[in-house]
Design a protein that fits this description.
alpha/beta, two-stranded antiparallel sheet, 320 residues, TIM Barrel, 8-stranded parallel beta barrel, 11 helices
């Protein structure tokens, strides 16, 4: 686990917006994220389309999918799309991915059995890495076959343009259950769960470390992230109302106590205290997802300017 620093990202909710992204790039924000389903019940965008917009509309920050429901996609096409975006952005792309499953109709529409989504995700991650490695690629899997094909990412014009980074973008696994933790430990470059408490995050860290040890994998450089729905306001009651309205309906008749554990809300001081619990549990990169119907830039600004400076790394061995 990296102990170097705590960094902050932001989710471009509800949709990527050029002016919003420009404002975020002026803040001490390291990354911006957006995901999206193919056929959700609401009118929202698609993950790679949104990623392309964020790539074009930013200059400095890392840009990522938060998250891409990978089993819905043919991995060779995704490998090409992401490679080209990484090349065009100067190596700023990251791939938050998950298995999906919230909307059965998506899987039926693209011809992917819902019960295959985990196995397809694992194999798709292998295909992405194989194609991004460069040179002729061969693969014989349960779902995909490659016969000496080669991916050649576009190289942007201009002297010294770096092109796609060696090995391609990092693959950051999202989820909340043990299979997702196993996937992160064995195949991922990082862990980015959502809607989990600090205690649950700490348990996931231990589970991933155990899985990696069993697989003989060194987790040096592994990214410990958290996609965190929250609201931060000068008026703490308004922030709590934001979260209750944004997420409460998903939890039936008992949202209050549950939301308090998994979606911090309140003043900067109150939210900083909650985020410190996640830091103590192992989080080093927060993606702040404003759980609010309006003024989301205020949430991100307060997170960057007033919450982040209050966070500190755990003291270990007498030094921070």
């Amino acid at each position: 686990m990296s102990d170097d620093r705590i960094i902050l990202g932001a989710a471009a909710i509800p949709e990527p917006d050029k002016d919003w992204l420009a404002a975020v790039e002026r803040l001490p924000i390291a990354s911006v994220w957006q995901g999206g389903h193919v056929l959700p019940p609401s009118q929202t965008g698609e993950a790679i389309t949104r990623l392309a917009l964020m790539t074009a509309w930013t200059e400095r920050v890392r840009v990522g999918t938060g998250v891409l429901p990978l089993p819905l996609y043919q991995p060779v096409v995704v490998a090409k799309q992401l490679a080209d975006l990484d090349s065009r952005s100067g190596g700023r792309v990251s791939v938050g991915l998950g298995v999906g499953g919230e909307f059965r109709q998506e899987f039926e529409a693209v011809g992917v059995p819902l019960d295959e989504r985990g196995a397809r995700t694992d194999e798709a991650m292998e295909v992405l890495r194989l194609l991004w490695r460069g040179g002729p690629a061969r693969h014989r899997g349960r779902f995909f076959r490659l016969d000496d094909v080669e991916l050649r990412p576009v190289r942007p014009p201009g002297a010294g343009a770096p092109g796609m980074r060696p090995g391609g973008p990092p693959l950051l696994v999202s989820g909340r259950k043990r299979p997702a933790m196993r996937r992160a430990a064995r195949l991922g470059d990082g862990w980015m769960p959502y809607l989990v408490s600090p205690d649950a995050y700490a348990r996931s860290v231990r589970a991933i470390e155990e899985e990696a040890w069993e697989a003989g994998r060194d987790l040096a450089g592994f990214e410990w992230m958290m996609y965190l729905y929250c609201s931060i306001r000068r008026d703490g009651d308004r922030a709590r109302d934001d979260v209750a309205g944004f997420l409460g309906s998903a939890y039936g008749d008992k949202p209050g106590a549950m939301l308090d554990r998994i979606a911090p809300a309140g003043t900067p001081e109150e939210v900083a205290a909650r985020l410190q619990q996640y830091v103590d549990a192992g989080v080093r990169h927060f993606v702040i997802a404003p759980a609010a119907p309006a003024d989301t830039l205020e949430v991100v600004t307060l997170a960057a300017r007033e919450v982040l400076p209050r966070l500190s790394l755990p003291v270990r061995g007498g030094t921070p």
